[in-house]
């Protein structure tokens, strides 16, 4: 049978983004020095000296101590007024002063995923104020949300944050406030990985 | 560096579903005979004699004329009252009388994906009645929605329908009603593949 190249799946080939595939490989090389890996809940991840962040090509099967993959996607809960507020205040990744970063992989419970869309939205924002808490730390803390659940990965999300050293305390407050919410009752695995630009 | 097997990404290994990876491979073999492939909008797909449906293992790179992959996932728009109404009425795939099937891959415009969650929900249901139209054809038409966008595939969704021959007219009405909606203004590629159990 002749292969129909025009109709072949593209995998993560050229396509206007999102989705952009982003991989985090722990090992001996990478732009980020790993300062700490703490298990907040559930099974941890092994410590390595460096973290390599790769955008674009699929790294499944690449040589590394561990490899976490996720894709950017459309918003799932954010309403227009919230999107507008975020876009008015947020700044991008890779700011020169953002020499600190955190990678926080998160998995939610099956109970969370079995909820209907209105129930998840209500828990996330009306009860837990997840979006508005995040707004309080813009533009100091720049962030990127990656979805991993659809890739069959071990986490549901990979959350990535970048900030300047003088905003370290603000970042700790952001993380603490989120962990105190009702939404976090539905988190069953969470790892906190802290990084410094190498 | 020693590989940390416990922390390796699972790909689509054992995990409580969803996500379940489902692949549709066109070629000379498979449970379904392909009756027709029509391009409703945008680039088509080549005709083949058979369609093989594979649940579970990843088929990326498998030998086939074309190969479309998607994953089951949580609901993205459905509210609790709608979920309950669906669950009360729907029946599963693989009913013996369901000898007809349709695979309709769909891609939506970048404008759709740039909308906020409340705007997409409003277009999908309050303006287009997508969920309630689907309810009108339960349990006659059984269905499965697969998400492909996050896998870097050429379509955003793979929609799969199964029904008995006597419900063929009802299915045509369902498809026509959906294509007349405001939501469908945001569809920029759609293929209609009709199948008969081999």
Characteristics:
alpha+beta; about 200 residues; globular; 8-stranded antiparallel sheet; homodimer
Give the amount of beta strand of chain A, in percent.
25-35%
Question: Largest interface, counted with CB-CB under 8 A?
Answer: A-B, 60 and 60 residues
Shape of chain A: globular
* Count of beta strands of chain A: 8
Order of helices and strands of chain A: EEEEHEHHHEEHE
Largest sheet of chain A: 8 strands, antiparallel
Q: Note poorly predicted spans of chain A.
A: 1-10
Oligomer: homodimer
* Spatial order of the strands forming the largest sheet of chain A: 4-1-3-2-8-5-7-6
Structural class of chain A: alpha+beta
Overall mean confidence score, pLDDT of chain A: 92
Verbal overview:
Two copies of one chain form a homodimer. Chain A has an eight-stranded antiparallel sheet with strand order 4-1-3-2-8-5-7-6. In chain A, strand 2 (32-41) and strand 3 form a beta hairpin. Chain A has five helices and eight strands, in the order E-E-E-E-H-E-H-H-H-E-E-H-E. With 198 residues, the first copy, chain A, is an alpha+beta fold. The longest helix of chain A has 12 residues, at 168-179. Chains A and B meet through strand 4, helix 1, helix 2 and helix 3 of A and strand 4, helix 1, helix 2 and helix 3 of B.
In short:
Two copies of one chain form a homodimer. By secondary structure, chain A is of the alpha+beta class.
What does the secondary structure layout of this molecule look like, with pairings?
2 copies of one chain form a homodimer.
Chain A lengths: L20 E7 L4 E10 L8 E6 L10 E6 L8 H10 L10 E9 L1 H5 L2 H11 L2 H6 L6 E6 L9 E7 L4 H12 L7 E11 L1
Antiparallel strand pairs in A: 1-3, 1-4, 2-3, 2-8, 5-7, 5-8, 6-7
